[in-house]
Amino acid sequence: MLMEQATAVRKKWSAVCDSVIHEKPKFIKRTRDKMWFSNLETMSDILQIYQFTALKYIEDDGSVTLSLNEIDLIENGKDEQEVRLNMGKAIFEYALDYYNEYEMYSHSPNRKKHIPYIFKALIIDNPEQIGDMIQCQDGKN
Q1: How much is the average pLDDT of 71-83?
Q2: What is the DSSP secondary structure assignment for residue 58, as one 8-state letter?
Q3: For labeling, which of 22, 66, 129, 130 is most exposed (least CB within 10 Å)?
Q4: For residue 94, how far is the Cα from the chain centroid?
């Protein structure tokens, strides 16, 4: 791999940042630690294949429930528009909690697989947009 030493990166920090933003990501090594430094656009492109999908249920009272497939979240709303917003908010709140407690969550076997979805939600940074992008399939009541 093309690893740059952390001490060299530190000495030319501004140039490295400009390079990452305008050219390409960098691989950085500090002793035994290896890191990847990129801009958010590149990360967003990488995470594009990760989609939020949910089963949609129409309840007896006419309300709509979404059950997210990737993360164990369930939300209800009076209609699909409201439940999508509720789910977008729930995803974003969970992403913030996960990030704030990253060391714990990322080492939990049942939550480790959430990592790409967490970063996708954090990069989007808009609960309404997150809700709008959920791909729904009809569930069976």
Answers
A1: 97
A2: E
A3: 22
A4: 10
φ, ψ at 138 (rounded to 5°): -70, 130
How many helices (H) does the chain have, and how many strands (E)? 7, 7
Domain boundaries, the chain: 3-38, 47-138
Q: Spelled out in words, what is the top-level CATH class assigned to the domain 3-38?
A: alpha beta
pTM: 0.91
Q: What angle do CA 50, 52, 55 make, to 5 degrees?
A: 140
Q: Retrieve residue 27's tokens.
A: 């691989």
Instruction: Give the count of beta carbons closer than 10 Å to the beta carbon of residue 48.
Output: 9
Q: Encode pLDDT of 88-138 as tens digits.
A: 999 999 999 999 999 999 999 999 999 999 999 999 999 999 999 999 999
pLDDT digits (tens, 9 = 90+) for 20-45: 999 999 999 999 999 999 999 999 99
| Residue 77 to residues 48, 74, 84, 129, Cα–Cα distance (Å) | 27, 11, 8, 17
Strand arrangement of the beta sheet that strand 64-68 belongs to: 74-77, 64-68, 53-58, 135-138
Residue that the structure tokens 């990592």 belong to: 115
Fold of 47-138: Double Stranded RNA Binding Domain (3.30.160)
